[in-house]
Amino acid sequence: MKKLKIGLFGFGVVGQGVYQALQRTSSLNVSIHRICVRSNKPRKAPAELFTTDREILLTDPGIDVIVEVIDDAEAAWQIARTALLNGKHVVSASKKMIVEHLGELLDLQTATGKSILYESAACASIPVIRNLEEYYDHSLLKGLRGIVNGSTNFILGKMKEEELDIRQATLEAQQLGFAESDPSLDLEGIDAVNKCCLLLAHAYGIVTHPSDILYTGIQAITPGDIAIALSKNQDIKLVAQAQKLSTGQITVFVLPQFVAKQDVLYGVRNEYNGVVITTHFADEQFFYGKGAGSLPTASAIVSDLSALCYGYKYEYKKLQRSDRNSLTNEVYLRVYLSYPDAGKVRRQEFEWLEEWHQEEGRGYLTGVIALQKLIDNRWWQRDGHSLILQPDGIIEEVVTRNLRRKSLELAGLVI
Amino acid sequence: MKKLKIGLFGFGVVGQGVYQALQRTSSLNVSIHRICVRSNKPRKAPAELFTTDREILLTDPGIDVIVEVIDDAEAAWQIARTALLNGKHVVSASKKMIVEHLGELLDLQTATGKSILYESAACASIPVIRNLEEYYDHSLLKGLRGIVNGSTNFILGKMKEEELDIRQATLEAQQLGFAESDPSLDLEGIDAVNKCCLLLAHAYGIVTHPSDILYTGIQAITPGDIAIALSKNQDIKLVAQAQKLSTGQITVFVLPQFVAKQDVLYGVRNEYNGVVITTHFADEQFFYGKGAGSLPTASAIVSDLSALCYGYKYEYKKLQRSDRNSLTNEVYLRVYLSYPDAGKVRRQEFEWLEEWHQEEGRGYLTGVIALQKLIDNRWWQRDGHSLILQPDGIIEEVVTRNLRRKSLELAGLVI
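Above: the input entities. Below: the structure tokens describing the complete assembly.
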């Protein structure tokens, strides 16, 4: 087992967690050699460890691994790239950086023979990347569905339990340290879609950019939506999912979804994350744990460091396969949509409507719409619309013509 | 990626599952070359695949891997041993064989350079062995608790839902295919303690024999016990667990346990398995999936075959560590005990008693007892006693003298 010397970038919540965790993991043959921070100030670690000069870490031949837990994705990329080129392994928690540069990181790893590991970047303490990479042959894998963002899960929980609107619930989450001061990355689903991209690469060998995936967050969810979920004994969760269709292609998106009580994701509470992996021969397998926070994130980083001691690297096996999977948007979704103004709902975009409730102030409908239509035209993300996927809301094929005509008539009659 | 030719031993429920799964996993570079069965009869596979002569498989130089899914542990050991010595990898589902011969299997793997993988032997579809081996450095690992036997979980569920006694519930489980025709291995906790031994080796690097671990099954659980669990909003589950104590030593046992509603194990229903891994820095992580059955077991075997294609082997890393863990029985348990005859309850064995309920026919008590006393003297497994661990029932230290005297007085008063 190798002895590893670490250069740590960042000493915020996660960086301090890594420092503490390694202090308490004496069995691991790892030591923090130097810590790079943005500014000099008193810290909870010996002053001689700290520097503000990143070059000192990146060029020190005594440092084997750069652990990078900073907020700035662009700076993280420069650090990771230089570290690999300088013959150092990298452990990173920056999902955005990894997703933005995954192709280049693959090339850099091949060129340098060094590894970048990033288990902490998706679902923190849950070893989901490692399991997808190592355990689930892509022919076994049907789909995955996950609650991968703890902040939004916490906020949705507060909206339900304390009957708050999203602004109040977000404020409470911020006060308790479960949401960032700028919560938009979480609320709008950007954090979730980044993680979804990471999972896609290791689940199916598909490298794609978040902008190619349909996503929205929980920003438009109203107390009325929550009340409707409650009335059906369901919860609303922000779910990232990828499903293999009968054609063998994969469809992927991040949307709020009604989750029924018998679904294991229903039980994912507060800031926890949970991922359901569906396989051809063993139905559902469920992985559950803390998805954020100082020590849970540090825990995954320590596991990556332990793996590096044994020479572990992601082999991206599924990327090397000739029969690797491809993405498709040719699928239909059964959705719920609540709206403040019936006149702005584009009924003609739907294949058919199933329910149409016009109440005072705000109405809602349920119906089936092509995923591609949601991508092509974003009317449903404007004007106070709130779109939520139904349970089991993926429909592979639709026999539409008559049904569609009928439902449009129905809609015409109702309004 | 290597192309692997398989010799399959056994074509029962699991063997047929393996055959079917591989038929449907064309992407995997694996083919079944020959199948060894005990007797010739019509089978759901081409007749030319079958033989009753094990030597044909074990000596065929064209066969790379022996997959062994037979019932007879002694025959399985002869097959695995010969296969390794003949330069073949082995994939096995025989927990009993592996546990009985783990030391020899370690030596054989070292001597031959060949691997034996056995993910399917513990919790079938859940990749718990691989995660313990690869992901959880033993310094990170505090404990694990698991429902590792689906039959007993199914039976306990039936006892609760349909208010059956254990005999009726077992009969129903047998009729539905969730219990063996001889259910004693499951009911008495033997299957669970075998799996517990496997988990111990990969969690903590401890190789031990089931007979060195305290275990009992659900054979003595009464409808009255279930009713008491219900009245407390708890379930009774058969739980295998290993916990690291503050001394760094590990305590391990398999006992029925009251499980509270907020415990993730509470949600493990029917024939499912679930394992909670507690780590120092990330609290609890939970793994859940089907723990038995034809295709779930086959699914784990296919994953092992896929791993072999990539040259994977268990490295038993924790066994190589100088600071590896050791077992201890120096711990106290908070237990519930129901009994038909108060006169046969050995009150003096307890450190103290907390409750004592004498009702018509059958009474129960709760109290604290040393684990070593449960091991040394098995009175509590005879005469209709039913011993169930309380939630959070492990107590590291006990200040006893006064409390004990007091509780014995109390017991004396009550009886």
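Note for the figure: Residues 294-309 of chain A form the longest helix (16 residues).
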